Amino acid sequence: MRIRVPFWVVSCFTFLIGIFLVSGAAAAATPPHYLVTNDDDIFINSVSFYSVAANGSLTLKQAVATGGQGIAGGYFGSSRLALLNSSSQECVYASDANSDDIAGIDVSTLTLAGTASGSSTDSGDANGIGLAISAQYLYAGFTTSNTIATFQLQDNCSLTFVSDTPVAGLQGGFIEGMAIHGNLMVVTYGDGSIESFDITSGTPVSNGDEQNSSAYVTSQGASYPTSIEITKDGHFALFGDTSTSTLIEVSDLSSGKLRPTVAYSLGTAINSSSILLSPDETLLYISNTQGDTVTAAFFDSTTGKLSAGCTSNRLKFYSVHWSYLAQLALRDDTGTGGSLYVAEFSANPSLALLSIQSSGGQCTLAELSGSPIAETDSAGLLSIGVFPPRSF
Q1: DSSP-assigned states of every residue in 194-209
Q2: Which of 13, 97, 128, 349 has the fewest Cβ atoms surrounding its Cβ within 10 A?
Q3: pTM, full prediction
Q4: Cβ distance 184 to 194 under 8 Å?
Q5: Sign of the C-alpha dihedral computed for residues 374, 377, 381 and 384 taken in this order
Q6: pLDDT per residue over 339-362, tens digit each?
Q7: The domain 38-387 belongs to what CATH superfamily?
């Protein structure tokens, strides 16, 4: 016996199936949430992926071998990781400074996609290979050869070497920090000088604005820019200085070139070599790399001005389990970031976890009870990041 089903029932059923399929596709497209580390191991390097819980706690998911060797150290301002979350692929790129190559890892499968090298003269074995990424290219700053290698992004997290650009600081310094906004790249040289490049055509072309920072000049070399952050609108570049105190410099980029920097003294905590802007750009987080604290400064993204905020208490196990604080990362890509992660450098590295509170012109940074977490696959932890990366 044939049963007739009313047309409206079939239509509703089809509609519901469509909703389920779309919902399923959306869920499948949601990228995983990881804290990522370049373990910088001198024997067999790896990238560790930690699952991030809603409360900010971390659980090691997997360590993926890069196929190369690290150096377990180097410049604080050089990020040894670059993260790509595009519509076509999800990738983590990590530099292997001792084997002079860049590894590409597929985040969806947590597998090594391959490695790429620059020219035969590119070398970063002295102080590491810093990375920065644009929509089409990855840039590698080789600290020994003082070259910026340009790689074109390919499918499946692979890279193709394009060319080298020789660079040097005004005092002969080696390339350290790199940051990109649109077609503009900003670099530091670790000798007090900074410079910007036009990367419209891929290969960096100097904008002719290489200069010594204001703090470097006034301190007679006692402070110099190391790490770099660029605001979401590309108006300002912020520099974290290697200094005997917490010192940040800001340059106006609105002309398409670096303007002379304005220096802000934000506390007595030693050194400010690693910095990170909150997603809403209201706070600048500062790793007091040769001290034992983390500082947050209030930032006005309209004027580029900084003002004093708050400093954490001494982080646990300083000088017992770790010696230096390095790069920073945030749990969330909205607001002030939710939770703050800090790389703790030593022969037995760890990750510190801090809570963030900010309201009414006041802020607090407090280390969480489960902090720190031992980073067991690392030989010298300096570079960390969160995937998916911040939108700017």
Answers
A1: EEEEE-TTSS-EE-S-
A2: 13
A3: 0.92
A4: no
A5: negative
A6: 999 999 998 899 999 999 999 999
A7: YVTN repeat-like/Quinoprotein amine dehydrogenase (2.130.10.10)
